Amino acid sequence: MDSFEELLHKRRSIRDFEGREVPLSLIREIIRESTLAPSASHGQPWRFIIITDRGVMKRISDACKGALLERIEAHPELPLSGYKSALENRAFNIFYNAPCLVYIVGPADVGSVEVDCALAASYLMFAAARRGLGTCWIGLGTPLDDPVIREEIGLPDGYRIVAPVIVGYPASIPEPLPREEPNILKIIS
Ligand SMILES: Cc1cc2nc3c(=O)[nH]c(=O)nc-3n(C[C@H](O)[C@H](O)[C@H](O)COP(=O)(O)O)c2cc1C
What we know:
With 189 residues, the chain is α+β, with helices and mostly antiparallel strands. The protein has one domain: NADH Oxidase, CATH 3.40.109.10. 36% of the residues lie in helices and 14% in strands. It has 6 helices and 4 strands. It has helices spanning 4-10, 24-34, 54-74, 84-88, 113-130, 147-152, and strands at 47-51, 100-107, 134-137, 159-168. It has a 4-stranded antiparallel β-sheet. Bound molecules: flavin mononucleotide (FMN). Residues 12-13, 15, 136-140, 177 line the site of flavin mononucleotide.
C-alpha cells in the first residue's frame, strides 16, 4: 500500500480515461472513505449523487457550458472568459468523457457546507488514487441551473452543488505541476 506521503504525491487531476467502467462497489467504497473527512460540528452535511450514464453526463456538460457562456456574455471581465473558446467547442465535454461523475452536494442553509463538502471531495480523491483510479474536480460542472436536470439527478430543492468529481481509470497521467514555495507570512515563536 502507498504510504500517505506517496499518495500525496501520486494524486493528479486526470483528464484522459480508459473506456472501461468503474464498478459501482468501488465508487461506494471511495465515497464511504470520503466521509472520514472532518466536518464542522461533525455535521456531515455531504450527500452524493453518482452518475455513470454517459448520455446524462453529456447533457449536464452541455447545460453547464450554456450557463457558463451566458455568464461570460453578461460579465466578459470574469477570468472565466478564458474558457470561452473551449466552451463554444461542441465536441468539448467538460467531464472529459469520464465513465463516472460524483456530485458532492449539501443543504445550502448549512453555513459550512462548502468547506465540509470540499474536505469530503479531497478525501474522495485520495481514496480513489489509492485504488489506482483517477479523479478531477470539475468546477465547470457546478452551474447546473436547469430544473429538469436537477430533478432528474435527484438534487433536492435547497441543495448546493459543491464538488463535481469525475472518476475513472487513467489512460495517461500528467506530470506533476510545480508548486510555489509555501508563502509563510509570519512565524511568531
Ligand atoms: C475547485 C476546483 C475546481 C476545478 N475545476 C476544474 C475544471 O473545471 N476543469 C478541469 O479540467 N480541472 C479543474 N480543476 C483541477 C485543477 O485544474 C487542478 O487541481 C490543478 O491544475 C492542479 O493540478 P493537480 O490536481 O494535478 O495537482 C479544479 C480544481 C479545483 C480544486
